[in-house]
Structure formats: structure tokens, C-alpha cells
Amino acid sequence: MSDTFPVEKFRSLKTPFYYYDLNLLQDTLDQVKKHGLSKGYHVHFAVKANFNLPILEIIREAGLGIDCVSGKEIERAIEAGFTPDQIAFAGVGKTDEEIRTGLYHNIFSFNCESIQEISVLNELAREAGKVANVSVRLNPNVKAKTHKYITTGLSENKFGVNPEHLPKLFKMLPNLKSVNLTGIHFHIGSQIRDLQPFKDLCEKVNLIQDRFEEEGFPLTHVNVGGGLGISYEKPDEEPYPDFEPFFNLFEDNLKLRDGQQVHFELGRSIVGQCGSLISKVLFVKEGITTDFAVLDAGMTELIRPALYQASHSVDVLTSDKPLQTYDVVGPICETSDTFRKGIKMPKVERGDLVAIRSAGAYGEVMSSGFNLREKVKAYYSDEI
Ligand code: LLP
Predict the structure, then answer these.
(1) 102 alpha carbon – ligand 1 mean position (Å)
(2) Quick check: pTM over 0.85?
(3) What is the pLDDT of residues 86-102, one digit of tens each?
(4) Nearest C-alpha to atom 24 of ligand 1 is from which residue?
(5) What's the mean pLDDT when you consider all of the chain?
(6) Rounded distance, CA 5 to CA 354, Å?
């Protein structure tokens, strides 16, 4: 049985749905303020992790900026009250229309991922009679020690400009009159629990920054991206990651120039733990090795287990019967629609409620209409 969730209220709601604990979100943001913003760092929330307005508004009020990867995310950020000077726009494949959206709003930074993109941006900015601020995303070839699908900083990955190609950029930049190079940008991957890769990143940033300076391109900011991971195993014991050593590591290892600003783009570490997917047990089916608890939520609501073999804790909210072993599965016509295999949890029956934890980041935003499934609702702790 759970005392973390308003279970009685949940019983009257149509399942599945997302539930967000806004107090936990606030506590997490307080940690970011205490250990990051207090050092003068700028933290942009990676809106791709969760784009719900009530969440964005709390994040904005805490003083964070925003990191977008599409034109629609820029519009959502503006709708949530973020100002253009708080918006960084990344993405390996920005369309002309999306670039124009960023130009229209005069955003803080286009994080450009290829040399061709910078020249296209220059052209579109010239047409619009503007000068766009550019941060070049570089691929530092740093191993992030995470799932291969969410590793982004290796040479073989599609992201960023390879430092080998910098001479071409240095040669081209003076001729691009409608872009203003302001910074360099990195993002090595996501769900990084061991801090060593961030230290490796700092070393690369320092070397690359020297090269820009030697070529006569001083930078006003360095953006080191996001990637800090959360505990999917023990969400109650670790309700937010330890931000202190994370921010300290950058303070200790980045060689900054006078007045240079450091930017971060954190997504999962901010919203991951505050969201849960609440679902009902539809059927309990006897199997050969374990029984199956068949839920009314599936990979259409939370694709992370199917896509990254992610293991989310499953809390049974309405039973404290003796433990039994289950495969916890969804209703979708794919074997990958499995949340957990062979886990022990209190014996469940048809109608019992479960919470699939740590689903606040890359959960609801990645839901799909496969099998013509309806988009599920979100509820917030301040309204129920
Ligand atoms: N900045 C850039 C340029 C990014 O690509 C990302 C995430 C972030 C920041 C935020 O990273 P975070 O702090 O959230 O790790 N859907 C996957 C994660 C994909 C991450 C994509 N990029 C998952 O569910 O694990």
C-alpha cells in the first residue's frame, strides 16, 4: 500500500494516467538553485523531457531557461512564459521553418550541429534582416557510459561538428555576416550516473576553447548540455540526483575566461522522479515460469522499457498481500510491451492500481497513438 500517492482519489479516475508530484518537482528545483544557479550557472530545462505547461511554469518560476529542439518547442516555451533570451535551440535537423521561428523570436542561441546548418542559418538570418547568435555544437568523442541509443558524444554519433572539421569553420566564419558566434555547445548523452564522463568532457571543452581563442574567436559562453541520470531502482531513496558534486565538477574542471557564462541543459534530472504512470491491472494470467500482470498502460504510454530496456520500479498501490513473481506487461500487440520481467510484488488482482515510477522525463512526451490508443491525461498533486 502506498502513502506517497493519493490512492483513494486515484480510484475515481480513468486509468491509465500520468501523475505529477509538484512538491517533489519544487524540491528538485530548490537543489538546482542551491548548487547550480547559486554559482551563476544558467540551467536550461530540456523541454523535450516534459512539455506540460503546469510543469514548465514551475520551472520558469525557479529561474531556469529552456532548451528546445523543435519550432513547436520554442512556441511552447514562449507560451509558458519563457523569454526569448532564455531559449537555446538545438537539433541536428532544423527545418527552414523552425529556423525562421527561432529568428522571429530572437532567441538566445542556435546550437548548430553542422557547418552547413550555420551557412543556411546565415542565409535565413540575412533574409530576415537579423543577426543570429550561434553556438557550435561539437562532438567531443567522450564515452558517456549509458545505453547506446542515448549516447550522443561519440564520433560515430550524428550529433555536433567533429573538431577535425573546425579549420573549415574558422575559415568560413568571417564571411558569414548574419551570424554571431557566441559559444560552444556539447551534450554527451543521457542517464549518466557516473560523473567521470563529465570530467572527460571538461578536458575536451578546455582544449577546444583554446583552439577557438587561438583562431581569434572569443566565446561568451560554454554550454555543456545535460545528461545527469536519476535512480530508476530506488526513486524513494533518491528522489533527485545529487546535484552538488555534479555542478562542483564543472566549477573545478572548466577553464573559464573572464566573464564567461556556463550553461547547462538538464531534462531528466529535473522532472524524472516527479512523474508516475498510474495504471490498473486488467487481468492476471497464469504463466509457466511466472504469472503475467496485464496492465491497461503499455508501451504507447511509456516506451522507455521497450526502447532502451529501461527498468522502472513498479509500486502496487492497492495491495499488501504476500509477494508473488510477475511479468508486468501492457496490452499492446508486441512482446516488447513489457515493463518488468520476473519481479516480486504484492499479489495483485483485477482492478488493483500500480504506479510505474520515475516516468516524469521522456514518458508522456514519447507516448504514441499506436493501436489507436487515446492520449492519456495528466493530473497534478495540487489539483487532486
Ligand atoms: N541537451 C541536448 C542537446 C539533448 O539532446 C538532451 C537530451 C538534453 C540536453 C537533455 O538531456 P537529459 O538531461 O535529459 O539527459 N528518450 C531518452 C533520452 C533522450 C535524450 C535526448 N537528448 C530516454 O528516455 O532515456
Answers:
(1) 20
(2) yes
(3) 999 999 999 999 999 99
(4) 362
(5) 96
(6) 10
